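pasting Aspartate carbamoyltransferase for the record, 303 residues
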Amino acid sequence: TKHLLGIKNLDPEEIELIFETADNFKDVLNRPIKKVPSLRDVTVANVFFENSTRTKLSFELAEKRLSADVINFSSSGSSVKKGETLLDTVNNILAMKVDMVVMRHSSPGAPHFLSKHIDANIINAGDGTHEHPTQALLDTFSIRERTGDVAGKKVVIVGDILHSRVALSNIFALQKLGAEVMVCGPATLLPKHIGSLGVKVELDIRKALEWCDVANVLRIQLERQKMRYFPSLREYSLYYGINKQLLDSLDKEIVIMHPGPINRGVEITSDVADSEHSIILDQVENGVAIRMAVLYLLAGNVE
Ligand code: CP
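structre below
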């Protein structure tokens, strides 16, 4: 495989290979010397047309740990603002002899479009409301790390499913690894045809939490909502917010995840996000090893 555009077309065996490679890199990252020479003659461009903290820094750190040469591009402050197209922008970057492109873009399909027109390896770092493959890989890797295995686990994805690339990539990854998947949120934030993906659909958050082993709580994506938000944030947090009182009222413990950035007090309260049940910062830590694994495997360094 030359590109990582989404989880949809990955085999379970390919995901397992990424996990095993990430296990090795996680060991490396816990050593005093965290750098390996694997990508020494490889140049990677991180091309971000949309804001990011975790994904951008995590990819950059992964590339540097692998000894790649790294250049960073953000559309704000670039000649995109003068009207330069996506293809011209990327072709100009590639003219500087770049081997791999990590791209985030607000348009679904933007990395797929690029992959048909340029020669470099492309990694999708989030394309609009479509996919965010490395997020789903680090999420499922973190479930495996905390619970021992993804297969057989019941995972509920909570909240703004309609606008979430994290939800779609997680649904594909969880199903390929043998988990049962439920989505839970207000009907206005669930895609009409979500049931056709083979997931359970639940509108009642209490029932969803009673069912699951793991809850992946999503951010309400105000920037993607074209219409006035319904329900209001106050109503959302009242009916769907994950808080300590709600979790304490269940007669079991649930692993809590969130891809970040968090709207504290909206989809999740601080006493849950920062509790021992939360693996939110483990997800971020694992993101570096997962991205090292993806970069390493795509660069063709499989032994
Ligand atoms: N989870 C995630 O993609 O975060 P960023 O938008 O900060 O990269």
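The mean pLDDT is 95.
The pocket of phosphoric acid mono(formamide)ester is lined by residues 52-56, 126, 135, 259-261 (CB under 6 Å).
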